[in-house]
Amino acid sequence: MGNNFTLEFTAGAADQGKILREYLKEKEISKSALTDIKFKGGFISVNGQEVNVRYMLKSGDFIRVEFPSELPSEGMKGEEIPLKIIYEDEHLLVVNKPAGMNTIPSREHPHGSLASALIGYYERSGLSATTHIVTRLDRDTSGLVLIAKHSHVHHLFSKQQRSGGVKRKYVALVEGIIVVDEGCIEQPIARKQDSIIEREVHLDGQYACTLFEVAKRYEGFTHINLRLLTGRTHQIRVHMNYSGHPLLGDTLYGGNKNKISRQALHCCELRFIHPFSHKELQFNASLPTDMNTVLEKGRSL
């Protein structure tokens, strides 16, 4: 059976007469996962005997679902890159990503990505897996990233994300003095015309909402904490630029590199419900050196 991801259940009295397909749907196993199990080498058994999803359950039946083994796509190669692992169990990882590391490889940066580091880590650990990154960060944004170890776990996290259950808190250093202590920026975001990368506030964009609060004001810049109610690409960077307070170092969105050489943005807190223990987990990552240096050198108001 190898180290394939498996789930085990015991049918209760209320499941008597239920079709297995419906039972597994109630257990949040997606239709695409069942298709993969059928065609890519997975296995469903009841009381040790292989069955198909039309099987009719009896109370006390022991159900085992083995998902097919997962392999990285052809072009994805593992690399031996150190990972700062904050938490790991059989289902997930939480990693503190440094600034300057792509989440996934790009044409400009084919090597050194978090995805390549993960594949290398899985290979060294003897785990048959590919990358399922739940919460991505831009290349120059540092901080906590949530990773699922299997497509089914990724599916459960995606559902949790859509319902607002995966919560992230960010720290940013922004140009100028924000005079209000807290606020909400609620502006739609769209891809900028003629640009593959850049986004902008646009009436035809997707709804986006960013909450911010001032932590401390300094001469020429403000230290803020942020929470996202939506997860649009470059959301914080676009919204802060729109508000007239672009991130320090963010030259794509109106900032300058006088104080720091990259956008001063860090994901400092990650909270979610564990998909199997159903307990809330919270992780924190302190500010990296470059952002701390800006604060230490700053003159507080």
Write the layout of secondary structure elements.
Layout lengths: L5 E5 L9 H7 L4 H9 L3 E4 L2 E2 L11 E5 L18 E4 L3 E6 L16 H12 L6 E2 L8 E7 L2 H12 L4 E9 L6 E5 L2 E3 L7 E3 L7 E10 L2 E8 L6 H8 L22 E9 L6 E5 L4 H9 L4
Parallel strand pairs: 8-15
Antiparallel strand pairs: 1-4, 2-3, 2-4, 5-6, 6-8, 7-8, 9-14, 9-15, 10-13, 11-12, 13-14, 15-16
Spell out the key features of this protein.
single chain; 301 residues; alpha+beta; 16 strands; 29% strand
Fold and architecture overview:
With 301 residues, the chain is of the alpha+beta class. The protein has six helices and 16 strands. The protein has helices at residues 20-26, 31-39, 114-125, 151-162, 235-242, 289-297, and strands at 6-10, 43-46, 49-50, 62-66, 85-88, 92-97, 132-133, 142-148, 167-175, 182-186, 189-191, 199-201, 209-218, 221-228, 265-273, 280-284. The strands form three sheets. Strands 5, 6, 7, 8, 9, 10, 13, 14, 15 and 16 form a ten-stranded mixed sheet that branches. Strand 5 (85-88) and strand 6 form a beta hairpin. The longest helix has 12 residues, at 114-125. The protein is elongated. The protein starts with 5 loop residues before the first strand and ends with a helix. The model has no long low-confidence stretch (mean pLDDT 93).
Secondary structure class reads alpha+beta
In whole angstroms, the N-to-C terminal distance is: 63 Å
Radius of gyration, rounded? 22 Å
Mean pLDDT: 93
Strands, total number: 16
**Beta-strand proportion:** 25-35%
Helix content: 10-25%
Instruction: Point out poorly predicted stretches.
Output: none
Order of helical and strand elements: EHHEEEEEHEEHEEEEEEHEEH
Q: How many helical elements?
A: 6
Global outline: elongated
Characterize the biggest β-sheet. 10 strands, mixed
